[in-house]
TrEMBL record, chains A, B:
PROSITE patterns: HTH_LUXR_1 (PS00622), HTH_LUXR_2 (PS50043), RESPONSE_REGULATORY (PS50110). It comes from Streptomyces cinnabarinus. The modification 4-aspartylphosphate is found at D52. It holds the Pfam family GerE. Residues 135-200 form the HTH luxR-type domain. Residues 3-120 form the Response regulatory domain. Transmembrane segments: none annotated. This is Response regulator transcription factor. The keyword Phosphoprotein applies. The lineage of its organism: Bacteria, Bacillati, Actinomycetota, Actinomycetes, Kitasatosporales. Keywords: DNA-binding, Phosphoprotein. Gene3D superfamilies: 3.40.50.2300, Winged helix-like DNA-binding domain superfamily/Winged helix DNA-binding domain (1.10.10.10). InterPro entries: CheY-like_superfamily, NreC/VraR/RcsB-like_REC, Sig_transdc_resp-reg_C-effctor, Sig_transdc_resp-reg_receiver, Tscrpt_reg_LuxR_C, WalR-like, WH-like_DNA-bd_sf.
Length: 202, 202
């Protein structure tokens, strides 16, 4: 029996997906929203977390790290993500969190079942159709420092506020913003935020 | 038999939802992504369109109007939407498109089946849990003109470009942006865009 915790923020969707997965005799299926998922990992002790990369509470990358919450004496669950090729930033986040499985939400649902079984054995599972997304994830143009500037700008912080938070001068923040605008091919700061959110960098 | 066209941009989710709905003997279920949905309305001629308000191609309101595409001699389908209370702008768009049914994605999936049956009879169906969302939709603070300015700003257009598109002076555009920032309780232009996208106004 493979214990699966399905993480998705829409109750309607995750209930129906869980019901559908329960038709497989070898799967024991539980489900939770992102908020509260780490608690459910500790109580359910799943073999596999199958997590949707969209998270209602944040633009961008959900708290994937929390799914690996360690319980003494119990191996952490293996991670499989439900992803889209057009949000490379989210794919990059999943790679960094050590996900073994990558199921394309544009594909057939049977792929999710295959993916769960392989990942439960500790094997990698990657939908080919996500290939272009991984390529774009590898080409992510911004440095970590530039990203932290842009995250604050996207939250509505002024240049002075960003400078204060990151212990930089106003001029340095302006230089970062100019570099970000150039590297993302944007017309201006607002356009750079729009492009970066669309790609899932933020 | 009620003919239902399920519109959702994730193939994996809409296939499983359609499968789940097909267990009801009185429902004939078809499905499509937003792109191409209007063509499917013409070929399937559904009694009810059950459409997710999230659309992969746009921030904000999906092209609900296209689902009402008229075929001579055939009544247009009735519209039911899958919605969240925390995106009042999307609820407002659905009301304006004449939707009869409003199913909360935070609720149990059985509500979707109930909703489809009532809407097919031409009756209204509204999940109580969406109430606060409708209240906020009614309190939408921006005028139509302010919204059109903000939509262009969110796309990365400069003040001069917005002025050119809307046949306004630069000063008038700046006045609109100041009013928008004040009315949304934002700290600045970027913050006003962030708040408005979060609410689903854009």
């Amino acid at each position: 029996m493979i214990r699966v915790l399905l993480v998705h923020d829409e109750c309607l969707v995750r209930s129906v997906l869980a019901d559908w997965l329960r038709r497989e005799a070898d799967l024991g299926v539980f489900h939770a929203p992102w908020r509260g998922a780490s608690g459910r990992v500790r109580s359910v002790r799943p073999d596999v977390c199958a997590a949707d990369l969209e998270c209602a509470d944040t633009y961008g990358i959900p708290p994937l790290g929390e799914l690996g919450a360690r319980v003494p004496g119990v191996p952490p669950p293996r991670l499989l993500v439900l992803a889209s090729a057009n949000r490379p930033g989210l794919l990059k986040g999943a790679v960094e969190a050590g996900a073994l499985g990558y199921v394309d939400k544009e594909g057939a649902p049977e792929r999710l079942v295959e993916g769960i079984r392989l990942v439960a054995e500790g094997k990698r599972f990657v939908d080919d159709s996500l290939g272009f997304g991984f390529l774009r994830a590898a080409e992510m143009p911004l440095t970590r420092r530039e990203l932290s500037v842009l995250v604050l700008a996207a939250e509505g912080a002024s240049v002075a506020e960003i400078a204060g938070s990151l212990h930089l001068s106003n001029g340095t923040v302006r230089n970062y913003m100019a570099a970000i605008t150039r590297k993302t091919g944007a017309r201006n700061r607002i356009d750079a935020i729009r492009i970066s959110q669309g790609e899932g960098w933020l």
